[in-house]
Recover the amino acids of this structure.
């Protein structure tokens, strides 16, 4: 922190010392604060980049539902922490977004396989009447299903089929389970699926629109973000075409813009800033549910009583920090909210390949400034070293995490079994899988990733500080504006 403060102090004093400056030096650069009477000035560059970075980091974040007891300040500071995370390592926030979408798609498939919906059991009004009569005569507990059939008969049916919006809403803690004589706690899509399948709760009769109505998404807010980022990209492209100098701050901002656009596509169906969840009740107590679940639920829970279905693992706050003896996150048990930092389990499919390629492209974008004009040779060399460092660290991280993720899930054993033993199911030993799950952070990963994390943090911190430090002395052409008239055909 002291080194960062010193760099910022140097940045400010250099501007103050040249307050009357903005003069050209002998190297074709302009030092100090440059006003904007004839072209763009220092303020124009800073304002355009800072407002774009803010929109890309603050507005685009889609965090999970907070706990019921949390105040506005808790939400504000949590979002501030994630904003800093998005500035320091936007590619990792993107990984969370992609991982959440992957989990949402899995949830949709789970509910589709469960075949809960009456549309699959009747096609005509007569068959619907017969189905309704059968359910009533049997005294079935699924009153929600009967009401759905009633709505279909009267032409008032709402489409409550499990959609990707339902899945996002569930996995962000949108459903709170309140069993008889038990404290309420949030559940995700997988846990809700199990409760419905076992008959402990009814299927929630929420439409996709009902889930979206809880979102605080503002059309104006998103439109402003898209307009600003779109205009910023046009400016960068225009400057590149006309061979005008582009600053390192603008290159870094462009990387945020690209990450934001991809994050928007991944979180397009995730409600934004939901504050009040949907409560699902059960006439059964947690004790009864756990007893009936058998040996699988016999172990004490760490996060919620439904850990035997899904224990929210792995998570930085609830598992990694306690493992490293750091200060932990939510201390209440059951968890009052689903944490935002559950590590994405993306698998080895197209989503994982896309994330890897985009991460390397994001890091590689910093190489564009390899031959830029810096205020000093030292700063240029440090920029080059930092660009190489973040690319190498990101590559090492994804290789290690992909391997360890496959090890935790038994992916490599299944592939081995399919290739060499003809085992189509690729089953692995249950005890071996339990052992791996208990040691999801092996010693070798801690030893390897600790220096990688330190190097990445130092390199990334230098890049973030340098993009502002370099504003004290820029090439003269950096203050020229794009001549848009040159793009208009002249006849």
């Amino acid at each position: 922190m002291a080194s960062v403060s010193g760099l910022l102090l140097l940045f400010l004093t250099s501007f103050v010392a040249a307050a009357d400056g903005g003069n050209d030096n002998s190297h074709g650069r302009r030092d100090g604060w440059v006003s904007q009477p004839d072209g763009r000035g220092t303020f124009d560059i800073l304002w355009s980049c800072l407002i774009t970075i803010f929109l890309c980091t603050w507005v685009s974040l889609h965090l999970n539902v907070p706990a019921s007891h949390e105040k506005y300040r808790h939400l504000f500071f949590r979002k501030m922490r994630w904003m800093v995370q998005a500035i320091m390592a936007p590619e990792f926030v993107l990984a969370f977004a992609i991982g959440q979408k992957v989990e949402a798609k899995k949830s949709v498939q789970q509910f589709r396989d469960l075949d809960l919906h009456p549309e699959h059991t009747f096609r005509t009004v007569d068959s619907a009447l017969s189905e309704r009569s059968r359910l009533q005569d049997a005294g079935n507990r699924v009153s929600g299903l009967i009401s759905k059939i009633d709505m279909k008969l009267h032409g008032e049916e709402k489409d409550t089929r499990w959609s990707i919006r339902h899945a996002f809403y569930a996995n962000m803690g949108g459903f709170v389970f309140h069993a008889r004589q038990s404290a309420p706690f949030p559940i995700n899509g997988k846990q809700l699926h199990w409760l419905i399948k076992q008959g402990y709760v009814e299927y929630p009769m929420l439409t996709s629109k009902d889930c979206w109505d809880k979102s605080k998404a503002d059309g104006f807010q998103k439109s402003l973000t898209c307009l600003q980022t779109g205009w910023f990209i046009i400016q960068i492209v225009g400057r590149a075409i006309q061979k005008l100098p582009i600053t390192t701050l603008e290159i870094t901002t462009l990387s945020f813009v690209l990450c934001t656009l991809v994050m928007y596509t991944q979180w397009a169906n995730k409600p934004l800033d939901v504050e009040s969840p949907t409560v699902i009740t059960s006439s059964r107590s947690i004790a009864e549910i756990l007893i009936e679940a058998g040996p699988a639920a016999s172990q004490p829970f760490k996060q919620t009583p439904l850990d035997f279905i899904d224990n929210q693992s792995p998570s930085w706050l609830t598992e990694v920090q306690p493992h490293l003896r750091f200060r932990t996150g939510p201390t209440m048990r059951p968890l009052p909210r689903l944490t935002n930092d559950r590590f994405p389990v993306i698998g080895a499919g197209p989503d994982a390949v896309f994330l890897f390629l985009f991460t390397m492209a994001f890091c590689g974008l910093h190489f564009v400034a390899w031959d830029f004009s810096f205020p000093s040779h030292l700063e240029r060399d440090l920029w080059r070293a930092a660009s190489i460092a973040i690319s190498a660290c990101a590559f090492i991280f994804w290789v290690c995490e992909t391997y360890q993720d496959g090890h935790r899930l038994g992916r490599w054993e299944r592939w081995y079994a399919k290739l060499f033993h003809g085992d189509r199911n690729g089953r692995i030993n249950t005890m071996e899988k339990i052992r791996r799950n208990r040691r999801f952070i092996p010693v070798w990963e801690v030893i390897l990733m600790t220096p990688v994390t330190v190097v990445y943090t130092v390199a990334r911190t230098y890049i973030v500080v340098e993009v502002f430090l370099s504003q004290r002395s820029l090439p003269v052409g950096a203050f020229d504006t794009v001549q848009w008239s040159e793009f208009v055909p002249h006849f």
In short: Residues 1-22, 117-131, 133-138, 430-436 have pLDDT under 50 and may be disordered. DSSP finds 18 helices and five strands in the chain.
